[in-house]
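Proteins fold reproducibly. Consider a sample protein:
=====
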Amino acid sequence: MAKIVGVTLTERMLAGLVVDHQIVGPLRRFPENEDDQYALVEMPSDGLIRTICERVVQAADGAKDVTGVGVALPGLIKNGVVEDAPNLPQLKGARIQEQLTAQLRHHGLEATVNILNDADAMASGLAASIGKLDHTIRVWTLGVGIGYGRYPFTQSTGEGGHSIVSLDDRERFCGCGGRGHIEGIMGHRAMRLRFLDMEPEEVFEAANAGDAKCLEFKKLWHKALAAGTASSIHMDGPGKFFLTGFNVRFVDMPMLKDYLHQMVKMSPLQSYMLEIVTDDAATRVIGAAVAAEQAATR
């Protein structure tokens, strides 16, 4: 069975050896200190790529028959190059696939390297975990930003978190600067900008207690998620949608389903399903490995 190392970068880096879609051995972490939230964003690109290499070598644990390395990170990826990465801006323009391949070769690892968006890794990891690698899986990750992942992989840009869900000129809270984006409504950073005197959890608590302004925003938040999902259904067909990320705690499933039902009216498109799942970093590691395994066979 093929040995693949999967790596994921979010607030921290995790790497693990994956065999037959299961993690074998311990996950290798950076930084070790759980409270150090800025270690990755403060590291220059060369140092970040070197650290990825070090964690891959640790995860391989002396095995020289590792055939692939999958690296999942937040950003717009094309042909192994990070074209943009708002959450890790030092990686913009980095030729990670090429650089990491060269560094791993110095450590005796002749492995095929594959780079992908972390939301896509979550989708492929979930597909592997439920034994549905022959199905279409889509995932919304509700966190600091909004991630949209899809499996099977496509050559599309995949920045679903920047889908346009509002034509209101006042909707300018998205970190990319664009108007009307789903991330500008639902993203944690955007919510903090919108309610400068309240944390997002306080906004939803107030909404549930009947505060008119906060309740109106709660409805907008759910309409935005419904609109993004409905657009995906109309473009890509129905199927399974997973919701994950630390802000799934705000999801009112009956409200979301009601808005989605109002938006998707064609009967052949109504066989969609929604499910909330835990945002498990290990799933992203497995998903990155699945992507590397499939890239090696194409």
